[in-house]
C-alpha cells in the first residue's frame, strides 16, 4: 500500500524500486511485531499506511469539488446573472467534453458533500436517484482501476432524504425551502421574481441531548439543572475541569451546525449543574 501510494507522489522510478526492495527485504522487521518495534508503534505505522491510501482515494472528491466550483455564480448571480451562468456552463461543457465525457454529468451538480466517519464513507448530493446510482458505480470502477481498492457495490447504500428531519451522527439533517423575492428593473417596467431554493441544514438535537444529560444526572427529565452527586467528592478544580471539558467537546462537535441557538441551552444546563455541584 505504501509503494502504491507513493507512486503517485514520486516520479523517480529508481527511487520507487529501491523503496519496494527495502520493504520486501525487511518486511518482517518493519511490519511484523519484534522486540525493536512495539505493538503500539506497529499499529501507528499501519494506521499511517491506511490513512495515506485513503487520502489518495479521496482526492477524486477534491477534484470534483474544485471543478464544480467553476459553475457557481457570484453574489446575486443565481437571480440576476442567470444568462452568464448558463454561458459558463456551456463553456465548461465544451472544454471538458473531450477529456471527461464519462463523468461530465457529475460536474453539473456542484452540491457534493463528503465525510468519512469510523470507516464509513458518506456522500450526499442533490441529484436524482438515477444519478446517484451512476455515481456509485463510477466511483467503484474508478477506485478499482486507479488505486486497486476493491469495494463491494452491494455494501454501498443509497437513501433518499425526506422532508422530515433525519437523526444522523448526533445531528438533525433537514432540507428546507428558502424563498427569496428579487426585484428586477428593466427600463420602466419592474418585475418581482420569486425563487425557491432548497437549503441543507444541520440542527442540534436539543431533546435527545437533554435526555442524555438527564440519564447522566446533570438535570431532570424537564431539563432543570441539578447537582452531579457522583462528582460531589471531587475537588473544586477537578469539577470545573470536567464540566469545562464537556462544554468544549460539545462546542467543538456542533461547531458545524447551521443553527447553534439550542446549544446555548445545553451549556446553560451544564454551567448551572457545575455551580450546584460546587455548592454541595
TrEMBL record:
What are its GO cellular component terms? chloroplast
What is one GO biological process annotated to this record? tRNA processing
Pfam families noted in UniProt: Intron_maturas2, MatK_N
* Compartment(s) of residence: Plastid
Q: Indicate the segments forming the Maturase MatK N-terminal domain, all copies.
A: 1-170
- Note the InterPro entries from the entry: Domain_X, Maturase_MatK, Maturase_MatK_N
What broad class describes the main subcellular location of this protein? plastid
Q: Which residues form the Domain X domain?
A: 199-280
Report a single Gene Ontology molecular function. RNA binding
Asked if the record carries the keyword Plastid, the reply is: yes
Top-level taxon in the UniProt lineage: Eukaryota
Could you tell me the keywords of this UniProt record?
Chloroplast, mRNA processing, Plastid, RNA-binding, tRNA processing
Q: Which family does it belong to?
A: Belongs to the intron maturase 2 family. MatK subfamily.
Q: What does this protein do?
A: Usually encoded in the trnK tRNA gene intron. Probably assists in splicing its own and other chloroplast group II introns.
This protein is called Maturase K
Q: What is the lineage of its organism?
A: Eukaryota, Viridiplantae, Streptophyta, Embryophyta, Tracheophyta
Primary gene name? matK
Amino acid at each position: 500500500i505504501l509503494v502504491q501510494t507513493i507512486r503517485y507522489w514520486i516520479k523517480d522510478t529508481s527511487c520507487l524500486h529501491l523503496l519496494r526492495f527495502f520493504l520486501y527485504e525487511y518486511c518482517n522487521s518493519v511490519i511484523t511485531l519484534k522486540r525493536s518495534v512495539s505493538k503500539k508503534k506497529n499499529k501507528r505505522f499501519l494506521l499511517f499506511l491506511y490513512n495515506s491510501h485513503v487520502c489518495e482515494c479521496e482526492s477524486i472528491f477534491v477534484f470534483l469539488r474544485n471543478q464544480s466550483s467553476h459553475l457557481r455564480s457570484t453574489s446575486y448571480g443565481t437571480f440576476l446573472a442567470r444568462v452568464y451562468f448558463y454561458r459558463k456552463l456551456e463553456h465548461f461543457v465544451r472544454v471538458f467534453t473531450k477529456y471527461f465525457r464519462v463523468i461530465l454529468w457529475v460536474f453539473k451538480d456542484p452540491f457534493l458533500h463528503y465525510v468519512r466517519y469510523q470507516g464509513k464513507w458518506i456522500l450526499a448530493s442533490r441529484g436524482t436517484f438515477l444519478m446517484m446510482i451512476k455515481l456509485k458505480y463510477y466511483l467503484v470502477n474508478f477506485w478499482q482501476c486507479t488505486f486497486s481498492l476493491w469495494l463491494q457495490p452491494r455494501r454501498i447504500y443509497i437513501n433518499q432524504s425526506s422532508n422530515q428531519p433525519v437523526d444522523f451522527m448526533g445531528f438533525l439533517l433537514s432540507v428546507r425551502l428558502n424563498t427569496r423575492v428579487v426585484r428586477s428593473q428593466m427600463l420602466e417596467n419592474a418585475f418581482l421574481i420569486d425563487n425557491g431554493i432548497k437549503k441543507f441544514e444541520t440542527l442540534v438535537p436539543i431533546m435527545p441531548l437533554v435526555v442524555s444529560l438527564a440519564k447522566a444526572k446533570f438535570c431532570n427529565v424537564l431539563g432543570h439543572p441539578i447537582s452531579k452527586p457522583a462528582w460531589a467528592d471531587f475537588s473544586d478544580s477537578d469539577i470545573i475541569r470536567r464540566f469545562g471539558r464537556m462544554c468544549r467537546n460539545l462546542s467543538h462537535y456542533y461547531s458545524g451546525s447551521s443553527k447553534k441557538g439550542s446549544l446555548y441551552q445545553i451549556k446553560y444546563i451544564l454551567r448551572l449543574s457545575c455551580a450546584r455541584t460546587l455548592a454541595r
